[in-house]
């Protein structure tokens, strides 16, 4: 595994990682604007408009790097944004996996939603964090060994963030992007987020294995948040799908964190090799406060290493958004109560 900030790709390899660093002046000006913006939950669309105004003040080169990340097929699949503003005071890390009830300012939320608004539209899903647009990603007692964002004691396998959908495809309504922002690192500073790009994965696979992964020989299990809430913990499987699809030059990949069911022995072997290759080609970063990751949820898959949670108010605390390029194509899922929140 390589640390993102130190990754040196091969000359002939696609540039699957990017680093975007704000100057101290840009950080401070951005922070001043966000500190005055208040709670985005009061009027999310007005807040998103205000964030657009604030982020438009970034230097043109920096702003274009972020915009291009969301625009183009040939750009990196993951980008580390560094030297972002932070809240002057941070309360205890929540213990229940939900938002803090004692956080007095909303700079972190502004950073998260502002970055999200530059690459698409943030969306919520009722079965993930109760439809909230800002997800607090925190270790929770009782969830330490789960393949979820509440875990800490097990390696969170390489996966895409997918959505259950009654049409039988769980890779259609999933987010196009994730944004992960760090409010607090884990105690030892060892927790790392890894990202494996489908371009690098495909190049590292044997042709026969890649052909199998491109065949509809797999069923994705619905997300754990969905199966816990709706299905009583039972598996809810997709129709048979391929794990890698699209053109050879710009492939797409989808793997469910809650389990993939191969339909043949050959598919089972290919799936095992896929997870190995993800580990071999992945970038990895240990996020720190003032850093955020932009993750293309279609170009690649991500994972998280183990760490020790103490449940003492100082545990690792990330915030996350789900982002779609457009909400139009998932309009059939929209809830009557909130046009950004979906079933």
Outline the secondary-structure elements.
Elements: E1 2-3, E2 17-21, H1 24-35, H2 44-55, H3 60-71, E3 78-82, H4 107-119, E4 121-125, E5 135-137, E6 156-159, E7 177-184, E8 193-197, H5 198-204, H6 207-213, E9 218-220, H7 224-229, E10 244-246, E11 251-253, E12 260-262, H8 265-281, E13 283-285, E14 292-296, E15 300-304, E16 317-324, E17 341-342
Parallel strand pairs: 1-13, 2-3, 4-17
Antiparallel strand pairs: 3-14, 4-16, 5-16, 6-15, 7-14, 7-16, 8-13, 8-15, 9-12, 10-11
Helix pairs in contact: 2-4, 6-8
Give the helix level as a range of percent.
25-40%
Mean pLDDT: 94
Overall, the morphology is globular
Low-confidence stretches: 1-11
Q: Any idea what the radius of gyration is?
A: 19 Å
| Helix/strand structural class | alpha+beta
Number of strands: 17
Description:
With 343 residues, this protein is of the alpha+beta class. Helices cover 25% and strands 21% of the residues. The protein has eight helices and 17 strands. The protein has helices spanning 24-35, 44-55, 60-71, 107-119, 198-204, 207-213, 224-229, 265-281, and strands at residues 2-3, 17-21, 78-82, 121-125, 135-137, 156-159, 177-184, 193-197, 218-220, 244-246, 251-253, 260-262, 283-285, 292-296, 300-304, 317-324, 341-342. Strands 2, 3, 4, 5, 7, 14, 16 and 17 form an eight-stranded mixed beta sheet that branches. Helix 6 (207-213) crosses helix 8. It starts with a strand and ends with a strand.
């Amino acid at each position: 595994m390589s640390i993102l900030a130190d990754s040196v790709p091969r000359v002939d390899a696609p540039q699957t990682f990017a680093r975007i660093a704000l100057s101290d002046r840009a950080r401070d000006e951005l922070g001043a604007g966000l500190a005055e913006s208040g709670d985005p939950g009061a009027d999310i669309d007005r807040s998103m408009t205000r964030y657009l105004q604030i982020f438009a003040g970034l230097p043109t080169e920096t702003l274009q790097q972020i915009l291009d990340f969301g625009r183009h097929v040939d750009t990196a699949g993951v980008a580390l944004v560094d030297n972002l503003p932070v809240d002057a005071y941070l309360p205890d890390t929540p213990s229940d996996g939900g938002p803090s009830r004692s956080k007095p300012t909303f700079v972190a939320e502004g950073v998260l939603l502002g970055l999200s608004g530059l690459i698409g539209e943030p969306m919520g899903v009722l079965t993930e964090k109760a439809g909230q647009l800002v997800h607090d990603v925190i270790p929770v007692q009782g969830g330490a060994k789960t393949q979820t964002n509440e875990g800490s004691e097990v390696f969170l396998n390489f996966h895409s963030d997918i959505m259950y959908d009654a049409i039988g495809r769980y890779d259609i309504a999933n987010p196009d992007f994730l944004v992960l922002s760090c409010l607090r690192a884990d105690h030892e500073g060892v927790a790392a987020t890894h990202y494996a790009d489908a371009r690098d994965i495909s190049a590292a696979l044997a042709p026969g294995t890649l052909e199998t992964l491109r065949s509809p020989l797999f069923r994705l299990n619905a997300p754990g948040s969905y199966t816990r809430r709706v299905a009583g913990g039972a598996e809810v499987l997709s129709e048979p799908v391929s794990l890698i699809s699209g053109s050879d030059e710009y492939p797409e990949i989808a793997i469910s964190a809650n389990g993939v069911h191969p339909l043949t022995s050959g598919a089972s072997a290919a799936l095992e090799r896929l997870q190995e290759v993800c580990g071999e080609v992945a970038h990895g970063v240990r996020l720190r406060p003032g850093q955020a990751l932009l993750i293309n949820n279609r170009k690649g898959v991500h994972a998280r290493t183990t760490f020790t949670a103490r449940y003492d108010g100082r545990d690792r605390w990330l915030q996350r958004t789900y982002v779609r390029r457009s909400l139009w194509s998932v309009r059939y899922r929209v809830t009557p109560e909130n046009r950004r929140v979906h079933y």
